[in-house]
Fold this sequence. Notes:
The protein has 286 residues and is an alpha+beta fold. 23% of the residues lie in helices and 35% in strands. The strands form 4 sheets. Strands 1-9-8-3-4-5 form a 6-stranded mixed beta sheet, with no helix packed on it. It has a 5-stranded mixed beta sheet with strand order 11-18-17-13-14, with no helix packed on it.
Amino acid sequence: MRALPILLSILLEIQFYVTGSQAEHQQSSSANNEVAKSSAGEDKGEDVIEGPIREVLAQSGSTANLPCKITEPGAGTITWMKRKNRRLLTVGKSTHSVDKRFVVIHSSTDWLLQIRVVTVQDEGIYECQITSHPVQRNFVRLKITEAYSIIPGAPDLHVKQGSSLRLECQLKAAAESPLYVFWYRQGHMINYDEEPGVKVELTKNGSILMVNKTKPSHGGNYTCAPSNAKPAYVMVHVIEEEEKPAAMHGGDRRNLGPAILASNFLVSLLAAVSWRIPSFTSLYPT
């Protein structure tokens, strides 16, 4: 009989142990879930940008300037970072990144981030942070455009020999004017040839090539190559002037001028009727 109370006591202790372990496991799981939710919330909060975002458009291969203006000079250390990968770019006036294309241009209240030779991979949101109290943040979204050029009339343009030729190279999706536009004919640059009657003029959005009087030698494949945009092409066909009418040298009568036709018609008419007119000797015989 004594064995029964001892057995019951052991069973109760086992039950209490199992119950306590389950409770501890539930508490631990609840704590882990709270930490996970908190972390997720923090990550989500980091992606949320509070405040205005300034837009900057730059052209691929050019220099992008991202502004950052502070209200109080000397308020704290200024840093630049890219939001997407939390990449620290600059600290104060020094470049922290191994990519030396990132440079800070500082003047009193301006801490401009300059990115040289930008590419499409540089697109994104950048943060300028001032370690003041409270912390100040400025955001800039950089967009990259890839410019290209067109020549109206392409791919084939026909021009009559002796008439004027005007080719215009127009830049599209460009954020800035080109430094130069080179023109090529059949692969040969013609900007500095000083060919008589040929003129190249640089415009704000491209370039214009003009030929006063076209010759057969002006035909061929033309290329305009701006300094900051993809090139464009056009094939120019010079239609040679027609040969002199064959009738001018005894050929087809259909090509004769109106005056010559009238004169020939009159001669033919007189010849046709002359045989009907009696001669004076027949009218007055001797």
